[in-house]
Amino acid sequence: MPKALGRDSACSIARSLEVLGDSWTLLIVREAIVAGATRFHEFRDALGVAPNILAKRLASLVDDGLMVRRTYQEPGERAREEYVLTDAGRSLSLVVAALGEWGRTHRPRPDGTSPRFLVETSDDPVRLAFVDSRGGQVPPERLVARRVPDRERATEAIS
Amino acid sequence: MPKALGRDSACSIARSLEVLGDSWTLLIVREAIVAGATRFHEFRDALGVAPNILAKRLASLVDDGLMVRRTYQEPGERAREEYVLTDAGRSLSLVVAALGEWGRTHRPRPDGTSPRFLVETSDDPVRLAFVDSRGGQVPPERLVARRVPDRERATEAIS
DNA sequence: CTGCTAGGTTGCACGAAGCAACTCAGACTC
DNA sequence: GAGTCTGAGTTGCTTCGTGCAACCTAGCAG
């Protein structure tokens, strides 16, 4: 976690990375989104992460509002803890999908696996794409990037 | 950088994070994509990163094939180094855009700025979206995630 | 009352991050 | 031709987070 840009940079990417900068965090989120993991041991077994690190990361995710910690109890079992994604956490699926597509394309492995996102009702696989205001897809080569104040979007919508 | 999943995990996201896991790396890429930065001092001044860290990150980016280091010389100047994104580096725009949208939505700031991607010819702003095989947009709530072997995509295309 | 399992906590060792200071080489100034 | 400015780093030191292993605790099973 870089200290200089740190906690409340004006840049939205820096603010995202403040929460997600640690790579375990994104892997935990990936596991929750893709595999539906909710329990401590599911994350630990799937990722091979040390328990102290996992505890700290899960606590950060709860602090940052990406997950909620809930106590639940199955019949005949004792009370357990589970970690469930919030809306903010679930909406990281765009980031997870982008990372997955990039890794699959630019770091290919013959035996690789990737999270794929499918339409719930039809199992139709989906991709990530840039779309313009009329809903048409635009290839990345035809784009330019520019840093813009966030408020301009509201102004745009009004004017 | 997590050691356990580390260098050549079967998961494409873990492989992406192996390269991008350090948050400085993504901020450097962001700066190159959004601001078009190429020179050492441009990155240092924009990000406030310590020069030893920056030198190490840039070297990693070159090693990993996301950037190339080139010597150039402007007339009347001595030879300088510049760092230019490769295709692999430029295609991180999807990841950068996803992080920017997430930060803008879930970590809003009144004085925030975000990188926006615009269509080169028309200045029309674009968004990131999931699209199905027919090019229609699908909201994230209607998706399920599943881990799938990468090869199945090739098989899909054939069958 | 012993073991088993889920969900952690504690205690070190080591490597990376952060900061400041220094280097080096070419061009420009006087 | 001595000083100086500027870009592009390197070196040294300190501190903080990561990784590993070991330990702890609550409940249920036998």
UniProtKB/TrEMBL annotation, chains A, B:
GO terms for molecular function: DNA binding. Pfam families: HxlR. Residues 11-111 form the HTH hxlR-type domain. Keywords: DNA-binding, Transcription, Transcription regulation. This is Transcriptional regulator. It comes from Jiangella rhizosphaerae.
